Amino acid sequence: KNEVEQSPQNLTAQEGEFITINCSYSVGISALHWLQQHPGGGIVSLFMLSSGKKKHGRLIATINIQEKHSSLHITASHPRDSAVYICAARLTNTGNQFYFGTGTSLTVIP
Amino acid sequence: KAGVTQTPRYLIKTRGQQVTLSCSPISGHRSVSWYQQTPGQGLQFLFEYFSETQRNKGNFPGRFSGRQFSNSRSEMNVSTLELGDSALYLCASFIGPADTQYFGPGTRLTVL
Question: I need a surface site. Which of B33, B49, B54, B94 has the fewest CB within 10 A?
Answer without folding.
Answer: B54
